[in-house]
Amino acid sequence: MTFSLWERKFLLLVCLRVSAVKVMAVTLQPLQARALYANNADTEEELSFSVGDVLTVHERDVAGLTGWWLCSHAGRIGIAPGNRLRLMTPSTACSDVT
User: Fold this and answer.
1) Cα angle 76, 45, 95; round to 5
2) What's the pTM?
3) With a cut of 50, which residues of the chain have pLDDT below it?
């Protein structure tokens, strides 16, 4: 079976779009992070959390602020210092820290 030039371009475009959708689906899923240390917010934009709390990470190094992550926790969205958090893998997200 041979494809015309137009058909080959169309198939390539479809493959690229499918790949882009798969990449977007993977990258748009927020990550989970466990707090290694407590954090007391110094500003309104910063989140407070305790050791062991699980935060949802929406973006790392947000707005060019190296080391600050945009997270949500306890019904609030704000920034958190990334060095106080450890990203969780899917296997650690469901297990308790011992």
Assistant:
1) 45
2) 0.65
3) 15, 18-26, 97-98
